[in-house]
Amino acid sequence: MATTKVGIAPMKAAQVREPGADFEIVEREIPKPDPGQVRVKVLACGVCHSDVFTKEGQWPGIQYPRVPGHEVVGIIDELGAAVSEWKTGQRVGVGWHGGHDNTCLECRRGDFRNCRNVKIPGISYDGGYQQYMVAPVEALASMPAGLNAVRRNHDLQRAAT
After folding, report:
1. Burial of 68 (0-12, 13-18, 19+ CB in 10 A)
2. For 157, which DSSP code?
3. Which of 19, 33, 72, 85 is the Cys-Cys partner for 128 at CB 3.0 to 4.6 Å?
């Protein structure tokens, strides 16, 4: 008797298939980082109002399907080629600034926030509404090990009193 080998995608993602569509949970293969990128195992991802840009197609040039999310905390679990300044197991954050081109006039002046080809996680590439994401090294911020990845609203209210 012959057996059939069934492949199951090893991670889940919340994606938007097209502008204006509902979120859908899909299974995907875990992405591999390219040179100059790292793969991040997502521990938490905030939900931001600007994620509506992706959901509703309100940002020029978004390619679909797309996974939103630019408020990410995670752990580096794989390095792309030529990445030496980061280590596997290191905690990182990925925010709105998701990378820059290092070639435009603004980048050459060190004004990366105004890069003419700025990248935004969840808009320019798949963001943190998934179990693993890939990000360029210039998008990473180091996160202290003792900082809680998830801060609930009632924790914030208690801390304020």
Report:
1. buried
2. H
3. 72
**pLDDT tens string for the chain (161 positions)?**
455 555 556 999 999 999 999 999 999 999 999 999 999 999 999 999 999 999 999 999 999 999 999 999 999 999 999 999 999 999 999 999 999 999 999 999 999 989 999 999 999 999 999 999 999 999 999 998 888 887 655 554 555 55
- Select from 38, 126, 45 the least CA-distant residue to 76: 38
Q: What is the pTM (predicted TM-score) of this model?
A: 0.85
What sign for the dihedral angle of Cα 131, 135, 139, 141? positive
Structure tokens at 125: 């590439």
d(CA 120, CA 136): 11
For residue 79, give the amino acid letter: L
